[in-house]
Amino acid sequence: MSSTETVPAAANGQARREHATSAGSGEVPRSKFHQTPVGLTIMIPNWNHRGFLPRSISSARESIASIRELGYPGEVLVIDDASRDGSGRFLRSLDGFYGWDDVSVLLLKENIGLAAARNLGLELTRFSHVLFLDADNEVFPSGVATLFRAALDTRAAYCYGNLLDIQQGKAVGLRSNEAPTLRLTAENYIDALALVDAKQARALGGYTDDPRFGFCEDWEFALHLIAEESEITFVPTVVGKYHILPLSMITESDATQQALFTAQMQRIYAQSGTREWDPERVGRVYHPDIGFLDEGWLLDAP
Amino acid sequence: MSSDSTLPSRRRLLVVYPPLGNQFYCELAMRISRAAAALDNTDTSLISAADLEACDTSWLRGTTALVVNPVECALSGLDVLAPLAASSFRAAVLAECVETKWFRNQFGGDIEYQTVIDVGFVDQGSAHPFPKLPYRFLFNAPLADESAVIAAMQPKYPRSLTWALVAARTDDRIRFAAELHSILGPEGFLFMPDVRPVRPGAGMLSPSALKRTLEKTTFYVWRSHHDFPYYESFRFLDAVLSGSIPCKIDSQTSGDPAGLPHTYRSVEALVEDVGSRSTEDMFDEQREFALAHGTLDGRLRELIRDV
């Protein structure tokens, strides 16, 4: 496990390394223009979610083990966005106690926000793909492995699968549960917990930190990918658990603000009145054990 | 040479399907049509409800019309079925639990039906809510060619996907999916979009996509979206024709009067059964059930003889 402290550079918002500590195999050099072998980084952006980190990190490590069983390398990258709840100390103590070689930690001295933290993950990944896991959620190893296989098979920019909403230990909802259709311009049913082709995502500028999109940067990101004709694919497997907490982002943004974001999003991306989305790229359903599943209609029609 | 009057008159059977409705009902209409094609002395036509207005009234006169899901047919227009008033006999063909609103709502239109044909595994005549409308039960047996396929199948297990759940999202089914994941295991296929018609372009699974999925799946599991006792016969056929094991979970099931295989009170009960015998044995049981009730062609022949 390597632990690195960074601060965001004021000029461009990009992070630079200022101080590094290493308790395990040492810091692995990362560069913006590094060669990226096929593999997976599970990136956990954290801000004041210390209490949930053991759960998310543990599930991420188990998932990386499933990726390694497939014969690909992987890592967990935790970026702490200048938390004030002791997350930094906790992450350092993990480093001290365990020295995991599959976990890297970046401790930011200044808060840069969720979108910028995710973009930092896209920049610093050592591998071809990044799965974004919010610190209060968790992933299932088999689900992550299935997503990863789907991403390799399809070369999609963005793959996602079912997330069970969990509240007080019970399954109370389901999200990221269907293929993207034009309905996505009216409401966001695809969570940020998704597996992204880092190169394609970087080429499109990653997540926007435009404050007008507030809590909807993941929604904007998905619509941006679609607008740029990148492939976005639903994988019908159970990928993880979305834990609904009293302070989940869903409840942070009030209805009025949400309506404002939605109007903003539709103004930009709901320009499809004259044409449907390209069915070859959007609305795809794929499972690596089966193949594409959004085909076959013409033959079936009476 | 015989004169026309000495020839036996041929029955004209018109199977009407809903072009804008759920693809399931198109499949049902196609199956009925294929079964009817094997009937003696019968000319069968499969027609979209939207095309009925183009039919010659004199041609419709003397036909027996089998209207698959009148409500979904009406999606093409409220009076789209009106030309069928000229037909000599009309039957509504359904595959629903008779105690649900989806069944009751079928008979609110202007067209009168002489009978309702219920396609399924269990006769629901005793619960049929319209005493003045004759009820006829059509056992949803495999078609003749499907029977041959089922008889010859030798599926191997385990398959790459342990379970598959394909249904519209409801709160009950979300809990059900979580149960399947934790009890049957994580290697599952979960396709549970928000409810809407299964149609091309709606982001739903096509029938052929479902078949390809089930060919990789050991257990095809489901539960009803209502609380009435019912068995979804088409799910059984989808599974058995793909070599998958159809497993209905029904917490209110009481015994097994109809001999339906693999109906369980809970996922735990399914696991218990799986632990007590081989999956191949389970498939043999459902194969036996599927082949023990004749063919849909034969069943339809008996039913049509009566109407």
Describe the structure.
The complex is a heterodimer of chains A (302) and B (307). Chain A has helices at residues 53-69, 87-98, 114-124, 141-154, 198-203, 217-227, 249-252, 255-269, 297-300, and strands at residues 2-8, 15-22, 40-46, 74-80, 103-108, 129-132, 138-139, 158-167, 170-175, 195-197, 232-243, 284-287, 291-292. With 302 residues, chain A is of the alpha/beta class. Chain A has a single domain (2-277), classed as Spore Coat Polysaccharide Biosynthesis Protein SpsA, Chain A (Alpha-Beta Complex), CATH 3.90.550. In chain A, strand 8 (158-167) and strand 9 form a beta hairpin. The longest helix of chain A has 17 residues, at 53-69. Chain A starts with a strand and ends with a helix. Chain B has two domains: 11-139, 3-Layer(aba) Sandwich (Rossmann fold), CATH 3.40.50; 147-291, Rossmann fold (3-Layer(aba) Sandwich), CATH 3.40.50. Chain B has helices at 23-37, 57-60, 70-73, 101-104, 144-152, 171-184, 207-214, 233-240, 267-276, 279-291, 296-306, and strands spanning 11-17, 42-48, 63-68, 89-94, 115-120, 135-139, 161-166, 188-191, 217-222, 245-249, 263-264. Chain B has a six-stranded parallel beta sheet with strand order 2-1-3-4-5-6. Chain B has a five-stranded parallel beta sheet with strand order 8-7-9-10-11, with helices on both faces. The longest helix of chain B is centred in the N-terminal third of the chain and has 15 residues, at 23-37. The radius of gyration of chain B is 20 Å and the shape is globular. The model of chain B has no long low-confidence stretch (mean pLDDT 91). The A-B interface holds A 140-143, 162, 164-165, 170-174, 177-181, 189, 234, 236-238, 276, 279, 283, 285, 287, 289-291, 293-302 and B 17, 23, 26-27, 29-30, 46, 48, 160-161, 169, 171, 174-175, 177-178, 181, 186-194, 200-203, 205-209, 212-213, 216.
